[in-house]
């Protein structure tokens, strides 16, 4: 896995986290809206029941109103319960997704750190090799200059031999040739 892939994956996980958070917020807003809607509907049902019943007996109306309130309250409680259960399930799945995303993020972060360490080791090795190459190049230049000097001395000696002005004692030339 390359560093670019890890960074892309991290960004995707961050985006996924943001979308999950917005989904959770939207779900909470939806629950509040549904609760308000249920309360309005229970008021409307109560008004319809009160207007539809003839006013024969105040006790019947009072009992009917109380039972309607109990019914709407029970209905509201049930709908709240079902919505709460659905929300809890959705929240659990969101939490699992977030945990998986965080785990993946940690794994990728650790992988990235290991790669950084390996890269640092490789950079150190490269630097050491470059220093070694530079020292070898300097050595090579020194050897070339010595070789050139030796060639010049050999030329001088050959010229002396050719033209007969060899010094009485050729030992220094012979010694230098054998030495090099």
Which key features would you list for this structure?
Flagellar FliJ protein; coiled coil; 2 domains; rod-shaped; 3 helices
Write the layout of secondary structure elements.
Elements: H1 3-52, H2 58-163, H3 171-179
Helix pairs in contact: 1-2
Provide a quick synopsis of the model:
By secondary structure, this protein is mostly helical. The chain has three helices and no strands. Helix 1 (3-52) runs antiparallel to helix 2 (58-163).
What this model shows, in words?
Residues 10-44, 108-153 form a coiled coil. This is Flagellar FliJ protein. Keywords: Coiled coil. The protein is an all-alpha fold and 180 residues long. It has 2 domains: 3-137; 145-179. Helix content is 92%, strand content 0%. The protein has 3 helices and no strands. The chain has helices at 3-52, 58-163, 171-179. Helix 1 (3-52) packs antiparallel against helix 2 (58-163). It is rod-shaped, with a radius of gyration of 47 Å. 0% of the residues are buried. The model has no long low-confidence stretch (mean pLDDT 77).
Number of helices: 3
- What share of the residues lie within helices? over 70%
- Backbone shape: rod-shaped
Low-pLDDT runs: none
Q: From the alpha-carbon coordinates, what is the Rg to the nearest angstrom?
A: 47 Å
Instruction: Specify the structural class.
Output: mainly alpha
Succession of helices and strands: HHH
């Amino acid at each position: 896995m390359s560093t670019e892939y890890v960074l892309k994956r991290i960004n995707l996980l961050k985006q996924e986290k943001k979308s999950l958070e917005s989904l959770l917020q939207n779900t909470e807003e939806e629950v509040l809206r549904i609760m308000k809607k249920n309360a309005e509907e229970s008021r409307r049902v109560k008004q319809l029941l009160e207007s539809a019943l003839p006013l024969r007996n105040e006790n019947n109306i009072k009992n009917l109103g109380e039972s309607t309130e109990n019914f709407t309250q029970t209905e509201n409680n049930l709908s709240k319960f079902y919505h709460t259960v659905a929300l809890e399930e959705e929240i659990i799945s969101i939490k699992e997704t977030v945990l998986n995303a965080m785990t993946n993020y940690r794994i990728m972060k650790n992988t990235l750190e290991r790669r950084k360490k390996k890269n640092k080791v490789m950079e150190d090795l490269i630097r050491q090799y470059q220093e070694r190459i530079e020292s070898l190049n300097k050595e090579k230049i020194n050897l070339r200059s010595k070789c050139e000097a030796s060639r010049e001395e050999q030329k001088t000696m050959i010229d002396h031999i050719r033209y007969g002005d060899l010094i009485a004692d050729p030992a220094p030339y012979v010694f230098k040739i054998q030495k090099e």
